[in-house]
Write a structure and sequence with these properties.
By secondary structure, this protein is mainly beta. The chain has strands at residues 4-9, 18-23, 26-33, 36-41, 55-57, 60-62, 69-71, 77-79, 88-89, 91-94, 97-101. It has one domain (4-101): 3-layer Sandwich (Rieske Iron-sulfur Protein). The chain is globular, with a radius of gyration of 13 Å. The protein starts with a strand and ends with a strand.
Length: 103
C-alpha cells in the first residue's frame, strides 16, 4: 500500500494558499508557506473548529471560532483558549506532487 497520498501538483499549489482533504477519516489541511509545505489535522484542539476556515498570519493559523493561534510548522499552540498542540501531518514533494502521509 502506498502510504503517501497526492494533494495537488506543486505547480497548481500557490504560495500563501492551503488545501484540505480527508485522510483516513481525518480532515487535514496542507499549507504552502514561503519556505515550504506543512500539514496539520484540520481540527482545533479547543472545540473542534476547522482551522482551515481561519486566517493565516505569517506561519500561524488563527482559529475562526475563539481565536486560538497555532504554529503551522510545529502544531504548537501559541495563544489560548486552546491548550493542546495540533497534530502535525507529514508532507513531502515527490516528482512535483505535494503528498501527505497516512499515519
Ligand atoms: S474552537 Fe478553536 S479556539 Fe475554540
Amino acid at each position: 500500500m502506498n502510504e503517501w497520498v497526492d494533494v495537488l501538483p506543486v505547480a497548481e499549489f500557490a504560495s500563501g494558499t492551503w488545501q484540505t482533504l480527508m485522510l483516513e477519516g481525518q480532515a487535514v489541511v496542507v499549507f504552502h508557506l514561503d519556505d515550504g509545505f506543512y500539514g496539520l489535522e484540520d481540527c482545533c484542539t479547543h472545540d473542534g473548529s476547522d482551522l482551515s476556515s481561519g486566517d493565516v498570519e505569517g506561519s500561524d493559523i488563527i482559529c475562526p471560532l475563539h481565536g486560538a493561534r497555532f504554529d503551522i510548522k510545529t502544531g504548537a499552540v501559541l495563544v489560548p483558549p486552546a491548550e493542546e498542540d495540533v497534530k502535525v501531518v507529514a508532507v513531502r514533494v515527490d516528482h512535483g506532487m505535494v503528498q501527505v502521509r497516512r499515519s
